[in-house]
Amino acid sequence: MFYLQKSFRPKAIRKCYYHTMPQQCRNIGWFARIPRAERDAIFGLVEDFQKDTSKPKVNLGIGVFRTDEDKPYILKCVQKAEEKILKKRMDKEYSPVAGFEIFKKLSMDFTFGKSSVFNKPGRHVTFQGLSGCGGLSIAAQFLRMFYPGRKMVYISDPTWPNHQNLFNKLGLKTDTYRYYDAENISLDFDGMMEDIHKMPYRSIILFHASAHNPTGFDPTEEQWKEITEEVKKRKLYVIMDNAYQGFASGDLNKDAQSFRIMAKRRVNMVLVTSYAKNFGLYGERVGATSFLVDSKHEADKILSQLILLIRANHSNPPLHGARIVEEVFTDPCLTKLWIEELKIMANRLKSARKQLLQKLKETGSSRNWDFITKQIGMFSYTGLTKEQIIRLQKEFHIYMLTSGRLAIPGITSKNVEYVAKCIHKVTS
Fold first, then answer.
1. Which of 4, 128, 191, 262 is the most exposed, having the fewest neighbouring CB atoms within 10 Å of its CB?
2. pLDDT tens, position by position, 278-289
3. Is 160 a catalytic residue?
4. 293: Cβ–Cβ under 8 A, 6 or more apart, which residues?
């Protein structure tokens, strides 16, 4: 059919043309009217920081380890593992849908320990996940489809910004339980226990295994035991987000006490482990997710469904990151080096906390900043208001989340005094 060019068509014809035959005439712009999504709080902040040409400027937003020179850190054990992989001339063919068996077995040894009753055939279902987000995503889809209890996920208030977004987008509703005492800047253990006690039976609850993001406050070993007993009484299903094992304290076993205590008490659980932080493999997207089960019969059914979900999602997990982790876990020399480097990274964060606390005291601040060294891991939950944080960014070019979360790796010997003075200015 012949159409006149727009400039030669009378208005009546143009109206008919656009309103009666849009599908034949227009193949672009179909999504022009969709709502604009809010940008990601963390990576949006990184973009703002990168665009800022001012000096000095400090990025206290993203949770990525940095040296005291504010440089990315590639672990020596990772570099040596890559050298070994290169010499082996390994192929680049597809990995199994759920990942290689050796990688999954090594991950179970690392998380639950070789002697765990669940580290046996038929007592767990483990797959290689795309770090934390990928593992949580597949686990959430599985629970949405097959969990027989109440499909409500209770998350701590506050929590990692992506938790609520991830579960909601995958069809699971979320609610919160108390975790942080803003008045005393501490763990609200009593509030948390009270909220857990009120949760409907067979609901789902998410815990941070260690180095709680964003508060940096973890329950003690005894408190984890109390939490475990209440979880059992309410028959809750646990999602355990294990992002910092070994990185939080420098002790692999201490950072695993939360989920190992629950495993010993036979709590129903899925453990989502990421190797981003403790191996520095942020961009490799490697992790392992383990469902604890009662029998091989149950395990086989779960695995069959997980394989379908993974196949539809990303089909096969990537090779390189998993091979690095496997090399480090199977080579005693590399394992020893890795543990040493974990302690170095953990101590670097502890040192940065002490430096920041000392400099804040030297400013003459009337505030009590002692909580900074009582917290653990990547972040400090500062108690700063949104207005104070916006002022830090606009006036002093210091970037951190408006929630008050401060990324400790961004603190260095060179910028700590500047950061402390600026924080003092906006809080005094």
1. 4
2. 999 999 999 999
3. yes
4. 122, 123, 124, 125, 299, 302
| Both tokens assigned to 260 | 């190992």
Distance CA 246, CA 253 (A): 8
Comparing C-alpha atoms, which of 129, 314, 342 is closest to residue 239?
A: 129
Q: What is the DSSP letter of 28?
A: S
Write out the two tokens for 147: 């969990």
Q: DSSP readout, 334-396? A: HHHHHHHHHHHHHHHHHHHHHHHHHHHHHTT--S--THHHHS-SSEEE----HHHHHHHHHHH
Selecting among 218, 277, 359, 369, the annotated active-site residue is 277
User: Which residues, including other chains, have CB under 8 Å from residue 327's CB and lie 6 or more apart?
Assistant: 81, 84, 85, 334
Handedness of CA 40, 215, 290, 152 (dihedral sign): negative
Q: Which parts of 247-358 are beta strand (E)? A: 269-274, 287-292
CB count in 10 Å sphere of residue 264: 14
The residues that bridge with 69 in the sheet, in sequence order, are: none
Decide: 152 and 204 in contact? Cβ < 8 Å.
yes
- 277: annotated active-site residue: yes
Please identify which residue in the block is written with the tokens 């496997």.
Answer: 326
pLDDT tens string 96-130: 999 999 999 999 999 999 999 999 999 999 999 99
E strands in 167-244: 173-178, 180-181, 186-187, 204-208, 237-242
Would you say the pTM of this structure is higher than 0.85? yes
Structure tokens at 165: 């977004």
Q: At a CB cut-off of 8 Å and minimum separation 6, what does 259 contact?
A: 111, 112, 209, 238, 240, 242, 269, 271
Residue in the block written with tokens 């080579």 = 331
Q: Which of 80, 104, 151, 160 is catalytic?
A: 160
Catalytic-labelled residue, pool 195, 241, 359, 369: 241
Which phi and psi angles does 356 have, rounded to 5°? Answer: -65, -45
pLDDT tens digits, residue range 351-383?
999 999 999 999 999 999 999 999 999 999 999
